[in-house]
Design a protein that fits this description.
283 residues; alpha+beta; Aminopeptidase; 2 domains; 28% strand
Length: 283
C-alpha cells in the first residue's frame, strides 16, 4: 500500500518538475534567443521558458524546505527580470506556513490540478482485442515534426488559435533528453500522441492529444497501456500525471488504474496576466 504523504508528494512533484526542467534545458539548446533557463532555489525548481509558456513557473515550493520570504523574493526577482508573470504549483502537503505567506504577498489561487499516480505492479496484458487496428510506438529521431503536428492537430479543435503554439511546444517536447514520445496509429495514419518522462523510479505521463477523426476508438487507452508496460520494464515503480478535475484526461487515467493522490493549487501573483493553457492533457 502506498500512502499519500509528504514523501509521495516529493517524489511526484520532483518527477514533474524534472520533466519541466528538461524541457527548459532543451529549449535553451534549440533556441538560445528565448533565454530559457532554470535553477534550484531552496529545493524549488524555478523555470523560465519564455513569457507565457506553461513551463514558466515553479515546482516544489515549500515542499522540500520550509517556505520563507527571502527565497520568495529571489524567485520573484528571477521572473520579473525576464518580464514574466509569477506562478507557483503548490502541493497541499507543502509547508502550511506557505499559505499565509502567499496571501500576504498578494498571491491568489487560479487553477487546480489532480495529481494522479499508479503503482507499476501487475500491469497484465492488453485488454484490447487482437483485431484492433491501433498500433503504438516510440517515434524515431527524425519524426519529431510528425509527433508535434499530430499533437497540435488534436489541440487545434479544442482551443482556437493554439495550433502554431502547440506545434512549437510539441517540437521541443519530442526532442527532450530522456523523453519517450509515443504515437498511436490507425492503418499507418498518426491519430494520437502521448509522452513519457522518467525521473528515478517515476514515469511521468503527459502530452495526450487525439485528432478529431481518431477519437473514441481507444487510441489513448492504447497509449496508456504501452507506456505503463515500458515504464515497468525500465524499473519504474510509479506512473504519474496531472489532470484538470473532472476532465476526460482524469477519466482516461482512472480507466487505466490511476488514482488521485491530491489536488494541487496554482498560485499567481495578483496583477499578473494569466495567458496560459489550463490543462496539459487533452482527450
Amino acid at each position: 500500500m502506498i500512502f499519500c504523504d509528504i514523501e509521495l508528494s516529493r517524489k511526484l512533484e520532483r518527477a514533474e518538475g524534472r520533466a519541466n526542467a528538461d524541457f527548459v534545458a532543451t529549449r535553451a539548446r534549440l533556441d538560445a534567443s528565448v533565454g530559457a533557463e532554470w535553477m534550484d532555489i531552496g529545493g524549488t525548481y524555478v523555470m523560465f521558458d519564455g513569457v507565457g509558456s506553461p513551463c514558466t513557473q515553479t515546482f516544489g515550493l515549500g515542499l522540500f524546505e520550509d517556505a520563507n520570504a527571502e527565497d520568495l523574493s529571489v524567485i520573484e526577482t528571477f521572473f520579473r527580470e525576464r518580464g514574466s508573470d509569477i506562478f507557483h504549483e503548490v502541493s497541499p502537503l507543502a509547508d502550511q506556513e506557505l499559505l499565509g505567506l502567499l496571501s500576504e504577498r498578494r498571491y491568489r489561487p487560479i487553477e487546480l490540478t489532480n495529481v494522479m499516480y499508479r503503482p507499476l505492479v501487475d500491469i497484465g496484458t492488453s485488454g484490447r482485442p487482437e483485431t484492433s487496428r491501433i498500433t503504438t510506438r516510440i517515434i524515431s529521431p527524425n519524426e519529431f515534426e510528425l509527433w508535434a503536428r499530430t499533437s497540435a492537430a488534436g489541440w487545434a479543435t479544442e482551443h482556437e488559435g493554439l495550433a502554431d503554439f502547440m506545434f512549437d511546444f510539441g517540437s521541443v517536447s519530442a526532442q527532450c533528453a530522456g523523453a519517450y514520445p509515443y504515437i498511436a496509429e490507425i492503418d499507418d495514419n498518426a491519430v494520437a500522441t502521448g509522452m513519457m518522462f522518467v525521473h528515478e523510479d517515476v514515469a511521468m505521463f503527459a502530452g495526450a492529444s487525439t485528432v478529431p477523426d481518431g477519437r473514441k476508438q481507444g487510441a489513448q487507452n492504447a497509449l496508456f497501456e504501452a507506456r505503463l508496460d515500458h515504464a515497468a520494464k525500465l524499473g519504474c515503480t510509479l506512473a504519474a500525471m496531472g489532470a484538470s478535475p473532472g476532465s476526460q484526461s482524469q477519466k482516461n487515467a482512472q480507466k487505466n488504474g490511476f488514482q488521485i493522490a491530491y489536488t494541487r493549487t496554482k498560485w499567481q501573483l495578483s496583477g499578473e496576466n494569466d495567458l496560459r493553457m489550463k490543462d496539459t492533457e487533452q482527450p
